[in-house]
Design a protein that fits this description.
598 residues; alpha/beta; Rossmann fold; four-stranded antiparallel sheet
C-alpha cells in the first residue's frame, strides 16, 4: 500500500465530518487573511505618517467617502487601531479554530478507534494466535491518533500553508518582482532535500514503530505473567530482556530522530541563507530608493512569514512518513480477512433442541496446505439433551472440536450441524446465544461479582444471580467477600483463587440457561467434594440440555450418557463408563492410570 493511497484513505475516513472540516478551512483562510494584512498598518505608519509619503489612491478614495483624508495624527490613530484589530482578530480566530479542530479531531479518533475495536472483536482466534496482544493494544490506543494528525497535522496545515504562501508572494511580487522571485526560489531546494530524505525517513519510522510494538507486547506479557516470573525467580531475566528491547527501541528512535534532525537542519540552513540574501538585497534597494522604508519593513516581515509556510510544508511531508507508518498498522487489521464470515442472508438459529452432528470434518489451525491436520474425517452424533464427555491426550483435538461448534474457527472440510442446520448458514450471534462456555482458565472482568455472573444475561435479577451462584457452589465464598455480590473483582480476578474463579464462571453459564453447554476442564481447580456438589447441581441444570464436558479427571464424567475418546484427531472409542472399561482400550488405560495415581 503506497503512502499516497494510505493518506487518501485516511482523508476519506473524515467524510462524515466534511461540514465541520469545511468550517475549519474557512476559519483557517480567515486567519491567513489577518496574518497577511497584519504588517500593513505599520507599513503605512512608516511611509505615510512618519515619512509623509502620499497615501495610495485607493486609501484616499476610501477616506473621502467618509468626508476627508485625515491628517498625520489622525492616520496614526487609525493605523494603530487597525494594527490592534488585526492582532486581536488573528488571536480570536486562532483560538476558535484550535477549539473546533480539537473537538473534531478527537471525535475522529473516537470513530477510528471504535472501527478498529469493532474489527478486532470480529477477528478469528487464528488472527490472535499470530499477533501479540501488547502490539494490538498499541495500535488501538496510540496508532489510531493518526486520524487526528491527518486533519490537524496534514490536511489543514497544507491548505493554509499554500494559502499563506500564495497570498504573501502576491503582495511581495507587487512590491518588487525580483525580490519576490528570489524568495520563492528556495522552494525547489526544499523539494530536492525532501526527495533525498524520502526513503531513509520512511524506513526508519516504520522500523521504529515495529520495534515499539514488540516492546509493548513484551511488557503486556510480563505484567500478565508476573506470578510465574516471581515464582521462578526470573525477575532478572525479564529485566534484562526488557532492557534489551528498550535499548533496541531507543536506538531505533534515535536513528529516526537523527535523520529528521539532519533533514530539518538542512531546511533551516537553506531558509537562513535565503533570508539573509533577501534582507541584504532588499536593504540595498531601499538605500537606492527602489522601494520605500515601509515597503522594506513589509517585505522583511513577509520574508520571515514566507519561510514559515515553506518549512511547514516540508515538515508536513516529514510528518506524513510517521503518519503513513502508523496508519499501515491500523489498515493491516481493518483489511484482515481472518474473520469468521457470515453468509449474506444467514438465518437465525432459534428454538433448538440441541442435536449436534459433525460430519466428515477435517480441520487444522491455519491454511490447509500449510498447517497440521488436527481433526481427520471426524464424525460424531449427539442426541439432544444428552451429556457427552470427551477425553483424550493433550493435542488430540478435544478443544478443537468444541471450537468448531462455536465457529471460533471453520472446518477445512465437512459440516458442523445443530438440529440439522449447518453452523455456517446461521448468524454468529444466534449461534453463540444458544451455547454457554466454561473454560479452564476462567476470565473474571474488573466489575462486580454479580455483573460477572450476569455477563451473558445482563437483565438477570439478583435472585436469579444468587440461585446460579448457589448451583455453582459459589454463594458462600461470595458472601464472605467485603461487599458480597457487589464486590469489584480485581483485574483478571487475581484476588480470587483459581477454584473461586471457576465457580463464578460456572454460575455465569448456569444463569445463561442455553440449550447447549460446553465445559472445558471446568473443575480442574476444585477439590473433589466441591466438584461432586457442582456436578450434582449440573445434573439438575442439564435436564433437557446438551452438555459437552472435556475433562482429564475421569471421576467427573463417569455418569455421562456417552464418553468419547479422541486420539490423533479421530474418535478411538465411545460408550458409557462401564462399556468402555470392558473394552479395555484408551479409556480403560486412562482410568487405570488415574486409579493407580490416586
Amino acid at each position: 500500500m503506497s503512502k499516497t493511497h494510505v493518506l487518501l484513505r485516511l482523508i476519506r475516513f473524515t467524510a462524515n465530518y466534511k461540514s465541520k472540516i469545511f468550517l475549519l478551512i474557512c476559519l483557517g483562510f480567515l486567519s491567513v487573511g489577518f496574518e497577511v494584512l497584519k504588517p500593513l498598518p505599520i507599513k503605512y505608519i512608516i511611509d505615510n505618517v512618519l515619512s509623509n509619503h502620499p497615501l495610495p489612491a485607493g486609501l484616499q478614495s476610501f477616506f473621502r467617502k467618509f468626508g476627508h483624508v485625515p491628517d498625520s495624527k489622525g492616520l496614526l490613530v487609525i493605523f494603530v487601531i487597525a494594527s490592534v484589530f488585526m492582532v486581536v482578530s488573528t488571536s480570536v480566530v486562532s483560538f476558535i479554530s484550535s477549539n473546533v479542530t480539537t473537538k473534531v479531531c478527537q471525535r475522529l479518533v473516537y470513530d477510528f478507534s471504535s472501527a478498529l475495536f469493532d474489527k478486532m472483536q470480529k477477528l478469528s482466534l487464528a488472527f490472535y494466535s499470530k499477533n501479540n496482544v501488547g502490539d494490538l493494544m498499541q495500535r488501538l490506543s496510540g496508532d489510531t491518533y493518526v486520524i487526528y494528525s491527518i486533519v490537524g497535522g496534514i490536511l489543514l496545515p497544507t491548505l493554509l500553508s499554500v494559502a499563506s504562501l500564495g497570498s504573501m508572494f502576491y503582495v511581495m511580487y507587487n512590491i518588487n518582482h525580483s525580490l519576490a522571485l528570489l524568495a520563492i526560489s528556495v522552494v525547489p531546494v526544499f523539494v530536492i532535500v525532501l526527495f533525498a530524505f524520502n526513503k531513509p525517513m520512511t524506513n526508519s519510522t516504520t522500523y521504529q514503530y515495529e520495534v515499539s510494538g514488540k516492546l509493548w507486547s513484551f511488557i503486556q506479557q510480563s505484567l500478565t505473567s508476573v506470578k510465574i516470573i516471581q515464582a521462578y525467580s526470573r525477575e532478572n531475566f525479564t529485566r534484562d530482556k526488557f532492557r534489551d528491547q528498550s535499548l533496541e527501541f531507543n536506538e531505533a528512535s534515535v536513528n529516526s530522530t537523527n535523520i529528521s534532525m539532519v533533514y530539518n537542519t538542512l531546511l533551516a540552513v537553506v531558509s537562513g541563507v535565503a533570508t539573509a540574501a533577501i534582507v541584504g538585497i532588499g536593504a540595498y534597494k531601499g538605500l537606492t530608493g527602489v522601494i520605500t522604508t515601509g515597503e522594506l519593513f513589509l517585505f522583511i516581515s513577509y520574508i520571515g512569514a514566507l519561510f514559515g509556510p515553506v518549512s511547514a510544508l516540508a515538515g508536513i511531508v516529514a510528518a506524513s512518513f510517521t503518519i503513513t507508518a502508523r496508519a499501515k498498522r491500523i489498515f493491516e487489521i481493518l483489511d484482515s480477512e481472518e474473520v469468521v464470515h457470515e453468509k449474506p442472508g444467514a438465518m437465525e438459529l432459534s428454538d433448538i433442541q440441541g442435536h449436534v452432528e459433525l460430519k466428515n470434518v477435517f480441520f487444522g489451525y491455519g491454511k490447509k496446505d500449510e498447517a497440521t491436520t488436527i481433526l481427520k474425517d471426524f464424525n460424531l452424533q449427539v442426541e439432544a439433551g444428552k451429556i457427552v464427555a470427551i477425553v483424550g491426550p493433550t493435542g488430540a483435538g478435544k478443544t478443537s472440536m468444541i471450537s468448531l461448534l462455536l465457529r471460533f474457527y471453520d472446518t477445512w472440510e465437512g459440516e458442523v450441524l445443530i438440529d440439522g442446520k449447518n453452523v455456517k448458514d446461521v448468524t454468529l450471534k444466534s449461534l453463540r446465544n444458544n451455547i454457554s462456555l466454561v473454560l479452564q482458565d476462567s476470565f473474571i472482568f474488573p466489575i462486580s461479582i454479580a455483573d460477572n455472573i450476569a455477563f451473558g444475561n445482563p437483565g438477570s435479577s439478583r435472585d436469579e444471580i444468587i440461585s446460579a451462584a448457589k448451583a455453582a457452589q459459589a454463594h458462600d465464598f461470595i458472601m464472605r467477600l467485603p461487599n458480597g455480590y457487589d464486590t469489584i473483582a480485581s483485574e483478571g480476578g487475581v484476588s480470587l483463587s483459581g477454584g473461586e474463579k471457576q465457580r463464578i464462571s460456572l454460575a455465569r453459564a448456569f444463569l445463561r440457561n442455553t440449550p447447549i453447554l460446553i465445559l472445558d476442564e471446568p473443575t480442574s481447580a476444585l477439590d473433589v467434594q466441591t466438584e461432586a456438589k457442582i456436578f450434582k447441581s449440573l445434573a439438575a441444570y442439564s435436564a433437557g440440555r446438551t452438555v459437552f464436558i472435556i475433562s482429564h479427571r475421569l471421576s467427573t464424567i463417569r455418569h455421562a450418557d456417552m464418553i468419547i475418546s479422541i486420539k490423533d484427531g479421530k474418535i478411538a472409542e465411545k460408550g458409557t463408563h462401564e462399556s468402555l472399561l470392558k473394552e479395555d482400550k484408551v479409556y480403560a488405560e486412562l482410568h487405570k492410570f488415574q486409579h493407580v495415581a490416586s
